[in-house]
Amino acid sequence: MKELLDQVLKEIKPSKEERELVEKIKGEVEGIAREIIAAFGYDVEPYFVGSLAKDTYLAGDHDIDLFLAFPPETPLEELRERGLGLAKAIGEKLGKYEVAYAEHPYVRALYRGFKVDLVPCYNVRDWREVKTAVDRSILHTKWILKHLNSKNDEVRLLKKFFKGINVYGSEIYIKGFSGYLTELLIIKYGSFLKVLENHDFMLRQKIIDLEGWLKKEPEVAMKTVKREADADVPLIVIDPVDPRRNVASALSWEKFGIFYFKAKQFLEKPTREFFFPEHKQIGDYKKVLREKGTKLVTLLFKKPDLIDDLLLPQLEKSAKGFMKALELQGFRVFETHWGYKDKAFIMLEVDRVERSRIEIKPGPEFFTERGLRFYSKNQKVWIRGKRLYSEKVVKEGIVDVIRELLEKNQVSLGKQVKEYIMRADILINFVPPELSDEAYLFLSREKWNLKG
């Protein structure tokens, strides 16, 4: 085990040369930031936050997060306006930049091959001063630096393990373990192996309170615990810098479940594939369809110009909307998949692509010539009053059903992708070549197979 972990660490830990380059670039970025801040005459302090500031980053993974901290008494609108203007000016000096949006606008710049996020925030001293979601980041960095106790490499191992089993990242479309949560777990349990050994205890214990908020601020902390317990989250980690927040609130049961099984598997049989997974074997999705006897419906449409944080949750909502709407129409939807390559897609695995629908057909009065013809042409005929009626079985295809559902606005779609989905091509048991691997991994369940 030790030999394996030493080898993995050797591959994921930044080299001396890489660390020197990172520090050099950080120094240059800070120098440019301070120069622009002085030119603006603002009372703003630049802080590095995130894994680079805490020295928990992996080799080759060194995006820079520079927070521009304004005094707490600054009005929020002023922070947003001045902060964006300042970030733009720094971004322009660094080189190429673009404006991105979270709770408030920030700037993403590129400097000598390094991605640099320039984020306005408040220079808060404790949780009571926090006004925006990003304000805690500086407090997080300070707390980790104080408590990590040279366990940086243990964090690297756990982070790489999480990445290898595809549970790393707190983004809404990932719902996994954040970098900060990874660091807190190492501080709590002491090492990478101890975290894995406690995977079961963690689930039963449920609450991690490193700062002792349940004693220091019981009312606030218990409110957090109750809220998160009611939401049925797998883990509650009360933020050491803010008792109102669960660091693990974004973690889904699915991602925790993957960690749960992979931790057991690694402890039983440790291999480097947990850290450096091999590409999954790809097969023929058409053969899978033949063997399973199910059908594949794919909606293919132009990819909206949205960042993943916005696009992927909208595609997920739309896929689930189709599942619900089609099941109400009598089709069984076994599973859904969504994403994008050149185009965006939603895949639905269904039981069939045609349904039988009964139509009641009103006919003429029974004692007329037309009535006799109606009687002779139809199999099931009855009289209601003077008129004849018959029952007719109609075959209806799923493409027509989907089109009708869309036209009648009977599918719950993501707002920002709706107009694109309305114009989607609908493919049956076929996908373009660039999606054939996605179709195979989806239909074979290898995309999510815990034993793969």
UniProtKB/TrEMBL annotation:
Database matches in SUPFAM superfamilies: Nucleotidyltransferase, PAP/Archaeal CCA-adding enzyme, C-terminal domain, PAP/OAS1 substrate-binding domain
Cofactor field: Mg(2+)
Broad EC category: transferase
Chain ranges of the Polymerase nucleotidyl transferase domain: 34-140
Binding site for CTP: S51, K54, H140, K159, Y168
Domain of life: Archaea
Keyword flag Secreted: no
Description of how the protein assembles with itself and partners: Homodimer.
Role description: Catalyzes the addition and repair of the essential 3'-terminal CCA sequence in tRNAs without using a nucleic acid template. Adds these three nucleotides in the order of C, C, and A to the tRNA nucleotide-73, using CTP and ATP as substrates and producing inorganic pyrophosphate. tRNA 3'-terminal CCA addition is required both for tRNA processing and repair. Also involved in tRNA surveillance by mediating tandem CCA addition to generate a CCACCA at the 3' terminus of unstable tRNAs. While stable tRNAs receive only 3'-terminal CCA, unstable tRNAs are marked with CCACCA and rapidly degraded.
Additional note from the record: A single active site specifically recognizes both ATP and CTP and is responsible for their addition.
Protein name: CCA-adding enzyme
Organism: Thermococcus paralvinellae
Organismal lineage: Archaea, Methanobacteriati, Methanobacteriota, Thermococci, Thermococcales
